[in-house]
Amino acid sequence: MVIVNGQTETGIVGQTITEFLTQRGAPLENIVVERNGDIVHRADFDVTLVAENDKLELISFVGGG
Protein backbone atom coordinates (compact mmCIF):
# COMPACT_ATOMS: atom_id res chain seq x y z
CA MET A 1 0.00 0.00 0.00
CA VAL A 2 1.20 3.48 -0.92
CA ILE A 3 -0.35 6.81 0.07
CA VAL A 4 -0.48 9.34 -2.78
CA ASN A 5 -1.75 12.81 -1.90
CA GLY A 6 -3.59 11.31 1.07
CA GLN A 7 -5.26 8.50 -0.91
CA THR A 8 -4.36 4.80 -0.70
CA GLU A 9 -3.12 3.29 -3.97
CA THR A 10 -2.16 -0.28 -4.80
CA GLY A 11 -0.29 -1.88 -7.67
CA ILE A 12 2.48 0.70 -7.88
CA VAL A 13 5.11 -0.80 -5.55
CA GLY A 14 8.26 -1.53 -7.55
CA GLN A 15 7.60 1.08 -10.23
CA THR A 16 10.02 3.91 -10.79
CA ILE A 17 8.75 7.41 -10.18
CA THR A 18 8.83 7.96 -13.97
CA GLU A 19 6.72 4.83 -14.60
CA PHE A 20 4.26 5.82 -11.89
CA LEU A 21 3.86 9.38 -13.20
CA THR A 22 3.57 8.24 -16.82
CA GLN A 23 0.87 5.73 -15.87
CA ARG A 24 -1.07 8.56 -14.19
CA GLY A 25 -0.62 10.84 -17.20
CA ALA A 26 1.18 13.37 -15.03
CA PRO A 27 3.28 16.07 -16.74
CA LEU A 28 6.86 15.04 -15.95
CA GLU A 29 8.27 18.47 -16.70
CA ASN A 30 5.91 20.38 -14.37
CA ILE A 31 5.73 18.22 -11.27
CA VAL A 32 7.47 17.96 -7.94
CA VAL A 33 7.45 14.62 -6.12
CA GLU A 34 7.93 14.37 -2.39
CA ARG A 35 8.61 10.86 -1.08
CA ASN A 36 8.40 10.30 2.67
CA GLY A 37 9.06 13.98 3.30
CA ASP A 38 12.00 14.34 0.91
CA ILE A 39 11.96 15.92 -2.56
CA VAL A 40 12.88 13.45 -5.33
CA HIS A 41 15.12 15.22 -7.83
CA ARG A 42 13.94 14.90 -11.43
CA ALA A 43 17.29 13.28 -12.36
CA ASP A 44 16.42 10.46 -9.93
CA PHE A 45 12.89 9.75 -11.24
CA ASP A 46 14.19 6.85 -13.41
CA VAL A 47 16.05 5.14 -10.56
CA THR A 48 13.82 5.81 -7.54
CA LEU A 49 11.45 2.92 -6.86
CA VAL A 50 8.12 3.24 -5.10
CA ALA A 51 8.28 1.04 -1.99
CA GLU A 52 5.65 -0.46 0.30
CA ASN A 53 4.35 2.11 2.83
CA ASP A 54 5.75 5.09 0.91
CA LYS A 55 3.93 8.40 1.23
CA LEU A 56 4.05 10.43 -1.98
CA GLU A 57 2.94 14.00 -2.52
CA LEU A 58 2.60 15.21 -6.10
CA ILE A 59 2.64 18.93 -6.72
CA SER A 60 1.95 20.29 -10.22
CA PHE A 61 2.68 23.83 -11.31
CA VAL A 62 0.11 25.57 -13.45
CA GLY A 63 0.81 28.81 -15.27
CA GLY A 64 -1.72 31.52 -15.72
CA GLY A 65 -2.35 35.14 -15.32
Automatic annotation (TrEMBL):
Top-level taxon in the UniProt lineage: Bacteria
NCBIfam families: thiS
Annotated PANTHER family: SULFUR CARRIER PROTEIN THIS (PTHR34472)
The organism's taxonomic lineage, starting at the top: Bacteria, Bacillati, Bacillota, Bacilli, Lactobacillales
Protein name: Thiamine biosynthesis protein ThiS
InterPro entries assigned: Beta-grasp_dom_sf, Mopterin_synth/thiamin_S_b, Thi_S, ThiS/MoaD-like
